[in-house]
Write a structure and sequence with these properties.
The chain is an alpha+beta fold and 481 residues long. It is built from 16 helices and 22 strands. The longest helix has 30 residues. The C terminus is likely disordered.
């Protein structure tokens, strides 16, 4: 068993060209079965591969016995006479700081750690212990989340010509049998059985049910599916790279600008890959970019608003400016925005990650509702608005949501005179860097609503109001008022 396992891994390394002569390879070891099998098999092959090994372990500080895991890894590295780098990070703190899930924050911290040690040791490869069972779990997990082919292709043997997975063709059962044959007992990670995590529920609940009731070889079937989709995805990526280059206007570390018209000429499948490619170019990874982000970007590209901004994960934002679309590092200032607002229905405000819902009511058929406080709900006399602002033979009124402009004034609710928006926001103790981000609802040139604060006294409903316009504003952006 020992020799067969090692030689099979050697064939996999050779087939995928994972390791070249004289390379230094970091071996990521957690202390679990997968990483220990990886370590001992690579150690057995080190002379055939003519490579140098360096053990790395990142303590996530998620469990009380995490320090013991680190010591366990150090002991195995010493036993094999290999250099070892240990480090610890508080993943709970990082998850809060980065506003990510614990799983995602842990993954980011690990890859930052690998990059750091690579720089220190001149390592060119990082060996990871993913195997066939991991592919099946990843495919199912991404399928449940609604992923595209990038997610359904699972885990590739080599990524970015740096991260290698020599165990990718082995099952968990084969790995455990190999460790038994060489007398190695791995550490047990209690988080691997915690069903609060989706991957663990798939591993311990969903896959056994699929094996028992549908296909006893479901893991191998999912692995084959991932391989097929991975090959097709690679082909589409080559086409998308060419399309991405054709759309480029400017590319730098701080911004990527694409030609909107050239972008729109491509099939939607390529458009989405171009968007993901742009994020990867900026961040080195697009794993936190989800389908909903791609849809939101495409809506901006195809929408009527010539200027709009959309926040993206990990400090990026997407901007449309007429015939240009751009990815840029997010700043505290959103910039100028202006959105036409539907008189009836929902309007998405991409720049603020928000929406406004508008509806018309008949005050004659039932009592006009009590005026809301004017912060995130507002009500106005619709007949008065139409009388002043509606075009001849038109039912619509020109509602716009925008940020402040120089010289803006309005008449706050309950006041007789007008007040500068600048002075109003100062009196409301709105921080200077947030003032240009406050959305204003405007009809024509008249400010009706300073969202988050108050409405205008003009066009307020009265007991005799016959028709009213009711609006509500909702935002999932933490920086919203």
């Amino acid at each position: 068993m020992t020799a067969d396992f090692v030689q099979q891994m050697h064939r996999s390394i050779a087939e995928h060209k994972m390791i070249e002569d004289a390379e230094t390879v970091l071996v990521a070891v957690s202390g679990g079965a997968d990483s220990l099998a990886l370590l001992y098999a690579l150690h057995a092959l080190r002379q055939q591969l003519r490579c140098h090994l360096h053990v790395v372990h990142l303590n996530h500080c998620l469990r009380p016995d995490a320090d013991t895991d680190a010591d366990f890894v150090r002991q195995h590295a010493e036993h094999l006479n290999l250099p070892c780098t240990l480090q610890q990070v508080d993943v709970f703190r990082l998850a809060k700081q980065w506003k990510l899930s614990v799983e995602t924050a842990g993954r980011r911290a690990r890859y930052q750690f690998y990059d750091s040690v690579c720089s220190e040791t001149d390592a060119t490869k990082v060996a990871l212990g993913h195997h066939q069972d991991d592919i099946a779990e990843t495919v199912l997990m991404n399928l449940i989340r609604g992923s595209g082919t990038d997610g359904l292709k699972g885990i590739v043997p080599v990524r970015d010509m740096k991260f290698i997975r020599p165990l990718i063709e082995f099952t968990r059962q084969q790995i455990e049998a190999f460790l038994t044959s060489i007398g190695i007992v791995p550490r047990h990670d209690s988080t691997n059985t915690d069903t609060r995590y989706l991957r663990n529920r798939i591993r311990h609940e969903l896959i056994p049910r699929l094996e028992n009731n549908y296909n006893p070889n479901i893991k191998a079937a999912l692995s084959r599916t991932a391989d097929v989709l991975g090959t097709e995805s690679e082909y589409l990526d080559t086409i998308a790279c060419t399309a991405f280059e054709a759309c480029q206007i400017q590319v730098s570390q701080e911004t990527i600008i694409l030609d909107r018209e050239k972008f729109r000429q491509h099939h939607i499948a390529l458009q989405r890959r171009i968007l993901r490619k742009s994020v990867s170019e900026m961040l080195g990874d697009s794993s936190d970019l989800y389908f909903k982000h791609c849809i939101a970007m495409q809506n901006l590209i195809e929408g009527d608003a010539p200027n709009a901004v959309l926040p993206l994960p990990n400090g990026l934002q997407f901007r449309r400016a007429y015939q240009r679309i751009a990815f840029e590092r997010k700043t505290t200032e959103i910039g100028n925005f202006s959105y036409p607002i539907a008189t009836v229905g929902k309007t998405l405000i991409a720049a603020l990650n928000a929406e406004i819902i508008a509806e018309l009511g008949d005050g004659t058929s039932r009592r006009t509702p009590t005026p809301p406080n004017g912060k995130f709900e507002a009500i106005f006399d619709y007949q008065k608005l139409r009388k002043v602002f509606a075009e001849p033979f038109s039912e619509a009124i020109p509602l716009t949501l925008r940020n402040r402009r120089q010289g803006d004034r309005f008449q706050p609710y309950g006041m007789q005179g007008t007040k500068k928006i600048k002075d109003f926001l100062i009196d409301a103790k709105v921080p200077r860097h947030e003032r240009d981000n406050i959305p204003l609802l405007v009809c024509g040139d008249v400010i009706l609503w300073v969202i988050g604060y108050t409405t205008s006294d003009l066009f307020k409903v009265q007991p005799h109001t016959q028709h009213y316009l009711y609006l509500s504003y909702a935002s999932s952006d933490e920086t919203a008022p």
